[in-house]
Design brief:
The chain is α+β, with helices and mostly antiparallel strands. It has a single domain, classed as Ubiquitin-like (UB roll) (Roll), CATH 3.10.20. The protein contains 4 helices and 5 strands, in the order E-H-E-H-E-H-E-E-H. The chain has a 5-stranded mixed beta sheet. The radius of gyration is 14 Å and the shape is globular. The chain binds FE2/S2 (inorganic) cluster. FE2/S2 (inorganic) cluster binds next to loops. The site of FE2/S2 (inorganic) cluster (FES) has 13 residues, from loops.
């Protein structure tokens, strides 16, 4: 689905955000597991990833209506906007949730970093394994 983008300007891309991909081939078509990007204030993790060719699943288009954009924030949780009740409810539907689980479409960068995000392998597999 088309990604709904935030409707505000992002700050300059000065915030270091590292994406760790458990299944880089499925997400990028490459074998590169670690991606060091620069994000801007107000930018969501999903937008940042997608803009750099990391195709995190986002079945609802980034409007907090699925849980396919689930990621783990390994570092810098306080550098992101806090989760809302809607996000908390939705993220519970994701497989293998942890204390640092977030929906990447819902967390926007607010601090100066650094931020480290792990994208689980089943981000893609969960979709592929739906029985027909
Ligand atoms: S893309 Fe659906 S909740 Fe993030």
């Amino acid at each position: 689905m088309h990604l709904k983008r935030s409707d505000h300007e992002h700050g300059p891309p000065i915030v270091p955000v590292t994406f760790l991909l458990e299944d880089p081939h499925a997400l990028t078509g490459t074998e590169q597991k670690e991606w060091q990007l620069m994000g801007g204030a107000g930018e969501s993790l999903l937008e940042l990833a997608m803009d750099h060719g990391i195709n995190i699943e986002h079945a609802c288009g980034g409007v907090c209506a699925c849980s396919t954009c689930h990621v783990y924030v390994e570092q810098g949780m306080d550098q992101l906007t806090e989760s809302t009740e809607a996000e908390d409810d939705r993220v519970e539907e994701a497989p293998a949730i942890q204390r640092n689980s977030r929906l990447s479409c819902q967390c926007e960068i607010k601090g100066t970093g650094p931020i480290v995000v792990r994208v689980p392998a089943w981000n893609r597999n969960a979709i592929k394994e739906v029985p027909h």
